[in-house]
Amino acid sequence: MTERHRLLVALLLEGDEAVEVQGLRRALGDRPPWRVPPHVTLVAPRNVRDEELPGVLADLEALARSSRAFHAELGPVATFAPRRPVVYLEVSDDDGAITRLHLEASRAALAPPPGREERSFVPHVTLSNGVGGTEVEAVLATLARYRRTCTFGRVHLLEQQSDAPDRPWQVIASPLLGGRSVVGRGGREIELTVADRLDPAVSAWAAEAWTGYARDTYGPGWEPDVPWAVVAREQGRILGVSTGEARGATCECERLIVDKSARGEGVGSRLLRHVERLAAERGCTRVRLRTLDGGSAERFYAERGYARSVILPAWREGRDFVVMVRDV
Q1: Domain 4-177 is classified in which CATH homologous superfamily?
Q2: Which of 22, 85, 86, 235 could be bridged to 80 by S-S, CB 3.0 to 4.6 A?
């Protein structure tokens, strides 16, 4: 069965602008978690087949390369009522960059299905979907003078996580607008692009390339890393999480965090012991982790049998970290 992806192309607000819009959302009665951060929709949700995804990603990269970062103004507040009970911030820019991005992104693989009547494009940031009646007029009057300048420096491709609670949207690609560097020395023109994360196509290529490199380096008996995640809950409420990977004989515990309200009550110890059992079940002979040198977490691990192995000078924020190991 062909996998389908539900995709959305948007300009996400970032930094102080995003925080401010989230504050307006709360004031109008919307509460987190939100399925998607504050954004301007460029292409409304579309369903694409698995084999179409590389084309969508290539189109988005090309669009980003041919564009540039730009400033836009948020505000004033407006509404689609009574047709739709939506209160939003108008979004405008001097050069028509948003409209151009919308038109370009709506072509090719993300073109609307045949026969679908598209709504007219109104650049906006939604504040609330539930304000109605006389409340709308009050909101419009209160926020009539709201203005905020923001900068858009990248375009985002989001995919809806249909198997997760509330079906949130997750960013899967975010190429910089105009964000490339071409180096032509040596007779070969190399294009370098920058993004927050690898898009799915590049991620698949990297995974295959690393697998080939590891087999060449470590021999045919090499096995790929196996990720794992352990979650501690109490009556459905998350109290702690630990994540990592099983790498041959070593189980790497990359993160272990307990909610502040539950610390000192044995949750961390139970998480750690479960990680150790999981490591043994997967054929690992030791658990290895990193933590702040001299911190309370180091004492926590030392009390549970972990020994200092290596010091990592200035590993993060100029502070030393230590590698700790325990046989299982």
Answers
A1: Cyclic phosphodiesterase (3.90.1140.10)
A2: 86
